[in-house]
Amino acid sequence: MERRTIEPRPGWQQTVEEQGLVYPLTRYPDDSLRPYWDESGYYVFSLDEVEALEEVVEELHRMCLAAADHIVTADRFADLGITDPRVAQAVAEAWHRRAELPSVYGRFDLRYDGRGPAKLLEYNADTPTSLVEAASPQWFWMEERFPGADQWNSLHERLVDAWRKQARLLPPGSPLYFAYSDADELGEDLMTVAYLKETAEQAGLDTGWISMEEIGWDRLSGRFVDRQLRFIRSCFKLYPWEWLTTDRFADHVLDTLDNGGGTGTTLWIEPAWKMLLSNKALLAILWELYPDHPNLLPAYLDGPRDLATTTGYVAKPLLGREGAGVTVHEPGTPPVVRDEPCCYQELAPLPDFDGNRVVLGAWVVENESAGLGIRESSGLITDEYARFLPHVIL
Question: 208: Cβ–Cβ under 8 A, 6 or more apart, which residues?
């Protein structure tokens, strides 16, 4: 793994916008605009390195599924902050019927420097973003700048194939709706959903388009409907389950949830069991089940334990995204137990490449490794000011 610099292509902003990345710039607190898509640098991997990382990702995914099964069978929902019995029941039922429910993709965030083993930082298998840039613009960048090279990137083909294989699990005679939230001001959620809709259409699926805020409830039929009052039988939503099960329509969601087996009237993708894989408590449960695994970091739910005096630790809210609420505690500082439920994970500072802190976003489609997206930040926390850099295999 190596970071190299390169001159950006003339007109790069217009190019990536035409390829679906309509948010190529980030607005900073000082009101300046700086590149989010940053092609002034790129990362180089060897083929052996990528093949080894692919094996790690698929092993981590299998371990996460085993941990999900443990959470359900041992009734450890409270460790994830799932205290509503109806929500716990819905998640457990979805897990037991997972073979009947479509499940598409997820993203592992890994610490990796090219020298030691990759370490799992977190897993988002419910509403992961940065998909568009990983699947499309960086592939076209490679073809233009490094013709004949390769890339850890089979995202598009695997997504189309996943929809094609899972089409049989969708309710017949009704389109698969794709929903995003109007609250997204940057267009990232919108374009992620639009891209996934495109891959479903390429797989031959009949699709629809709606925002979460436009989904209606028909009191007469007791069903969710679209703007024309047509029933919504299935819907891919880029909207976290913890919101879906707590907002004002939560009771309707649970009452009508299609969890397989011919019951319920609305099937949601990703399925409810993905709540188990998008919660930071998963990190502590993995460490409990696989202590000293080379690709895991020590993590606990009851406090930092000895991490406070040895390695230092990072406190992560169970449901935080884009670094929100994450705090870094250097070794030797007094241990702090947060009021809100957190996971306390060993501090493993992100690798420093020429002053840039890098995290690998490794994608899984269905159960297989599918691609890589790389984000850089200036500090130890990968937040909303991170930059996306392309990569090649040389």
Answer: 175, 176, 177, 178, 226, 232
